[in-house]
Design brief:
Pfam family, one: LigB
Radius of gyration: 17 Å
Shape: globular
Organism: Oricola cellulosilytica
Number of helices: 10
CATH superfamily: LigB-like
Number of domains: 1
CATH topology: Protocatechuate 4,5-dioxygenase, Chain B
CATH class: Alpha Beta
Cofactor: Zn(2+)
Keywords: Dioxygenase, Metal-binding, Oxidoreductase, Zinc
Strand order of the largest sheet: 5-2-6-1-10-7
Protein name: Dioxygenase
Amino acid sequence: MGNMPSVFISHGGPNVVIEPSEAHDFLASLGKLVPRPKAIVIVSAHFETDGPVVVTDPNPAMIYDFGGFQQELYEKVYPAPGEPELAMRVANLLADSGLSPRTTAERGYDHGAWNPLILAYPDADIPVVQLSIDPRRDAAYHYALGAALAPLREEGILLLGSGHITHNLRAIFASIRHGSTPDPELSGKIEAFTGWFAEQFGKGDREAILDWRNRAPFIAENHPTDEHLMPLFFAYGAAGEGAEAELAHHSRQYGFFAWDSWFFL
């Protein structure tokens, strides 16, 4: 893979960092699967604002936005620097596209950001700029965020969307609590949903993809709320018109929790 792709990853809970799984292995290999970036612009599903906000913080701290996990996860530190100059370029590109960004001088890395980065780039020596999602806005809005930043890929900057291809936490917690075997009906609905996206990406049907809420099957079972899918549309938009999609990773946890991740070129 010679050109810098844009990337969507399913980031999982923070325990993916320390527990063995296929998803852990994929995230740990990510830094070898794409060219080494000069910097990373990341959109995490856990950074929610009204309209786009770009972080100019030169030294982001850690945000432990979770509860009930192993103590060592609350001691993890990812000391990658921010890059205020790049952050202002991001803001200017968004403004040039009519997206009215704001900046914030201080914000740490939530687990949607540091989960994948601590595995993919453990040396923490690549600058990171964070950009928010807006859960009140649709796929087309997040696609436009990515499209506005697409020129950065030509400079070796990785545009990374960090969310989840499915995100039915109620079903996951119920499965964990009761130790139940995977519900084959639910598993089928997850497979139908992820398969629908794979089919549309294969066809390059951008109209259908951006209209996912009206066209994809089993929305409620896969995304009771939308925020974890929005980084997918950012990464898709960042590859530009006519983007080709490559399924970079496909695994399941608890029989139905999907970890699909995508490269876009």
